[in-house]
Amino acid sequence: MDRGSRGQIQSSAVPNRPPQRERSRTMRKENRNKNNANIGIAGVHYVVSELAIRGVIALPTIRNTAGYDIIATSEDGLWHANIQVKASAKPGMTWVAPRGTKADVEERFKRGPDDYYVLVRRVGETWETYLLTGQQAYENVLAGCEEQLLKGRAENNVWPYFSSKNSAHGGELWARAWKEWRQARVGHNRVRPRLARRR
User: Fold this and answer.
1) What is the pTM of this model?
2) Which residues make beta-bridge pairs with 119?
3) Domains and CATH numbers, the chain
4) Is 97:84 a contact under the CB 8 Å cutoff?
5) What is the mean pLDDT of each run of 10 residues along the chain (199 residues)?
6) Element at 160 (helix H, strand E)
7) Maximum Cα–Cα distance for the chain, whole Å?
8) Closest CA to 40 of 79, 73, 84, 88
9) Please, which residues have CB within 8 angstroms of residue 44's CB and are 6 or more apart in sequence?
């Protein structure tokens, strides 16, 4: 409190306090980030539960572990899969990855023979689920990056994203791949996931 020239007590402004509009914007962003994080966590546990029902041992990694969200294995240990889950509650067949460069895509997206990406989208009380191999995911995201570069976006400021429009019949094939992903015996008692083939 400050005393004015006429002896009246005047309120002094609170130092370093952002304007109301800025505080509201910050709170909305924090709530949005929190909701996105919750959707991501829920998506991972949904995939784990679905794989468990199919007889696959699926273990979520520690939160924010680089590379993979789920490590899955058959009961006999002869097959395993490294899984990244991308979850969204937004409409449309697009899942956005962290911003970066085209070179980041080369490094960030795993495409080994045992690498898979599961895309899940929350729709009402259910989940829509799609499965891509690591190579399919890499090619899909790379196509999106190249499209952005052709439109003039700076190479160090692209948004890697998964989108069905980047692959012929992508959504249909990815949905079928997830539904048909199950353990199948293939010679020498080796277990491999069965994926829908591109037609």
Assistant:
1) 0.73
2) 86, 130
3) 17-193 (3.40.210)
4) no
5) 51 57 52 69 95 93 83 90 92 80 80 93 92 91 85 78 73 90 45 44
6) none
7) 96
8) 88
9) 60, 69, 70, 85, 87
